Amino acid sequence: MGINYFADLHLHLGASTSSHLLWELAHEQGIKLQEKNYWDFIKKLEIKETNNNNYLRRLDKNNHSPFFITQLIQSSPYAIEKSVHQTISYFYRMADVRLIEIRFNPLLRNRNGEFDVDKIILSALIGMQKAMIDYPIKAGLILETDRQFDYKKSKIIFEKAVKYKKLGIVGIDVSGPNPSSKFEILSLVDLYNFAKKNDLKTTIHTGEFTDIDEVWQVVEKISPNRIGHGIVSYKDKKLLEAIKKKNIVLEICPTSNIKTKVVKDWDEFRKIIKFFLKNDILFTINSDGPEFFNTNVKKEFQMLLKNKILNKNQTKKIISYGFKYSFI
Ligand SMILES: [Zn+2]
User: Fold this and answer.
1) Which residue ranges in the chain fall short of pLDDT 50?
2) Which CATH superfamily is domain 6-18+81-324 in?
3) What is the distance in A from the centroid of ligand 1 to the CA of 229?
């Protein structure tokens, strides 16, 4: 590719930790897995082509999604430290990543309050700091709240993010599938204002499985530094203008969007990216869930080049945006 190093600003810890580590962590901690065979376990975690956000809800016979399994295994101070360390070191070695922002939800990592959430966050930060001693890489953690959480739980996460800012929490996010009862993104406006007032960087998953109306609300009422995905905004030129005017950066995750059918195929992806480039929309390329989707940020750029979605110069520019628009 002629370019040596990459930044990955959008990846979820639950979908980024190597399956073999999860398998070992489960056994080390005495967690009973449904699969007795390692390869069945792998099959359960990998995401093939799916329809819309079904993969988030793909349940086994115990009604557990892949995310539930990885969250359960990562739910201890020991396991989360190991997971963060392994994720950072792995992508340094395998994908020439030199800057990485990993996101996770600490309240989905403490076994419903069995573990102290402060210890969980601190252990994740220790794993990150150790990885940065072991490898020349810059790293930061983003705390996520969930669309299924009530306001009280979200508030705890925003407050913890501010509390641990000095130790390496670089931003805040909201993710997760929309609950059946209607979730209102605007219910989080004051928490986002609280984060901004405390100099915490902000991003929000929107415009992936949610519609243009929600992206409008996010842009106008919350105005985060970045948006997770936001890919649907290409359908609305006025919305793109608003995004551009506010210098909001879109975190684009190509393979993720293709595999979940948010974008139909690479041809549609090409149209969208060309449109973004033509309209000077700021965006970065990211892996989202490299282990689940069998990708990494380097592979994402290789795919974009191969499918003639970006040329060499555009690739260079977008790679540099990953470093420029990092929260670190
Ligand atoms: Zn995501």
Assistant:
1) none
2) Metal-dependent hydrolases (3.20.20.140)
3) 7
